[in-house]
Amino acid sequence: MCSKIVAPPEVYSGVSRCKNAILLGIMCLTAVYGAVHYALKDSGSYLPPAEEYCTSSNQNICARPDLFAFQIGSGIAIAYCGVMGFVTWHVTQSVYSKLPSTPEGRLFGYLRESENLAAANFTFQLWDFFVSLAIPEHATPVLLLHHAAAALVSWFSLSFQVLHYYGVFFLGCSEVSSVFLVFIDLARYFPPSAGSPFDRFISVCQPAFFVTFGWYRIVLWWKVSFLLWKDILYVLRSGRAEELRPGKSFCLYIYLFLNVALGLLQVFWFGIILQEAHKVLSG
């Protein structure tokens, strides 16, 4: 969690308050990844990966501790962001009670929960980007660009203290579906035995992922995005953006571009999810 020391009004950046938390987060995620990777380095005999993920020429001793360790590390970060976003948006509803319901309030108001989310998401995306470079399955251009874009918007929110209302949704609530995806991917990499407790657990995660992805990353994504565009265009045209964040208006244009780009990516991914769901239902 970021330091509770309040910066003077003329200092917008939250980086100074969160730098220690960011460094600690990166070290903790790396420590978890390293510990799990080391513990499972010879796990081929009791935790064999699916054949398609086996990089060893000898299938009997194939082990992929990197895939398992990555799921554990990323799962911790995703769960933190998803739960905090869900609680702040739906339970405590701090985005409504602590921020003015105006374009200026939603874009430039301060919300500690959102600042913590921005720091956590930046930490995770930065860590994810560099660890993914060492894992072939994760080092795809699309995934790496996604991590870079998410890290960038998190950095802007943290550094310039902007979009705290929207940060709760895009950096928090949108990760709710990813909590289920962590387990689904784990089962894809390391298929459970049919009828096992983990196999039954995955049968629950799959529909939960489908519903939460469709709700948060498709339906609500575009609904919240419409309000985001409306607010940003207002503060840009009225001059309020430069008045409240002098010299920082450029980041709002980047937000608009990445909002559409990432939104279209969600639609693309949902199309793939629908195809997979159809395969399962059709037998």
Task: Describe the structure concisely for a colleague.
By secondary structure, the chain is mainly alpha-helical.
Q: What's the pLDDT, averaged over the residues? A: 92
Task: State the separation between the terminal residues, measured CA to CA.
Answer: 46 Å
In terms of structural class, how would the helical and strand content be classed?
mainly alpha
Q: Residue share in helices?
A: over 70%
Counting DSSP E segments of at least 2 residues, the number of strands comes to 0
Question: Explain this structure to me?
Answer:
It is a single chain. By secondary structure, the chain is mostly helical. It is 72% helix and 0% strand. Helix 8 packs across helix 9 (197-238). The termini are far apart.
Structural topology:
Elements: H1 15-39, H2 65-91, H3 94-97, H4 103-108, H5 112-132, H6 141-160, H7 164-172, H8 176-189, H9 197-238, H10 240-244, H11 250-281
Helix pairs in contact: 1-2, 1-5, 2-5, 2-7, 2-8, 5-6, 5-7, 6-11, 8-9, 9-11
